[in-house]
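A reminder from the course coordinator: this example appears on the midterm review sheet, so study it carefully.

Given structure:
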């Protein structure tokens, strides 16, 4: 069955998973970023409790992208030695980063996920060292049938982002109210709701968002703000109404 775009969902679950999956086509799993479940059976159960066509995407474990000084490490429950902590983050060519990738990949397989998001912290700057580590990491890992998404933050130019996305076969994940995507052939928008996630998107903003989604291309609209359920519901209704109107005009 051909996928219907845009796919609208949330980053996380504002409802229990079966109910969310009845209302939306996709959700981005956040637990795999903070601390993947200890047992793969947990993720397999998540897969089994939603309808078959429902799609999971997921964030790669922060041990790959974020240094141990990140406040998000407060939610890491794995016991890591001091030398392991020093080797975490920034796509370092280290055993702990490699193991974190294998864990992330296993999570994707358990969920039946095809899209894996690598979100970098603002501190991950476009230095020669960081870019070199990125290139080595993405050249080394085995993707199989996975598609990789990359969300850089901080002071990266569009030129550098586009060059790396093309060279490393990455999809540019972006908040469209802050930046333009450099890979418009495949859109993955993450709507963060501003710095503190408290922004509620207006009707006008959502209409503008509808207008910039490329027609006929894979497109994911993932709400990550405090009103994610409300905004995702409204935006999905708007997208379906527009699609229905366009179909009527064709006939």
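Designed residues:
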């Amino acid at each position: 069955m051909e996928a219907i775009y845009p796919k609208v969902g949330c980053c996380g679950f504002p409802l229990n998973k079966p109910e969310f999956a009845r209302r939306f086509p996709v959700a981005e799993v956040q637990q795999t970023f903070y601390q993947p479940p200890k047992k793969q059976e947990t993720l397999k159960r998540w897969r089994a409790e939603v309808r078959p066509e429902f799609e999971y995407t997921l964030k790669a474990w922060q041990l790959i992208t974020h240094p141990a000084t990140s406040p998000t490490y407060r939610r890491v429950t794995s016991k890591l030695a001091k030398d392991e902590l020093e080797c975490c983050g920034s796509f370092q060519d280290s055993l702990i980063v490699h193991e974190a990738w294998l864990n992330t990949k296993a999570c994707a397989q358990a969920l039946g996920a095809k899209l894996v998001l690598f979100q970098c912290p603002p501190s991950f700057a476009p230095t020669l060292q960081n870019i070199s580590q990125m290139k080595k990491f993405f050249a080394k890992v085995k993707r199989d049938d996975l598609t990789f998404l990359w969300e850089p933050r901080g002071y990266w130019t569009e030129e550098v982002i586009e060059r790396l996305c093309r060279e490393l076969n990455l999809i540019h994940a972006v908040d469209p109210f802050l930046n333009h995507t450099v890979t418009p052939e495949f859109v993955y928008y993450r709507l963060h709701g501003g710095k503190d996630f408290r922004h509620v998107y207006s009707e006008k903003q959502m209409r503008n968002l509808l207008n910039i989604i490329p027609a006929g291309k894979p497109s994911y609209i993932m709400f990550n703000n405090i009103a994610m359920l409300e905004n995702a519901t409204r935006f999905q209704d708007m997208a379906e109404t527009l699609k229905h109107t366009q179909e009527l005009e064709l006939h």
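The chain has one domain: 7-250. Strands lie at 7-11, 26-29, 55-59, 115-119, 147-151, 171-174, 187-191, 219-223.
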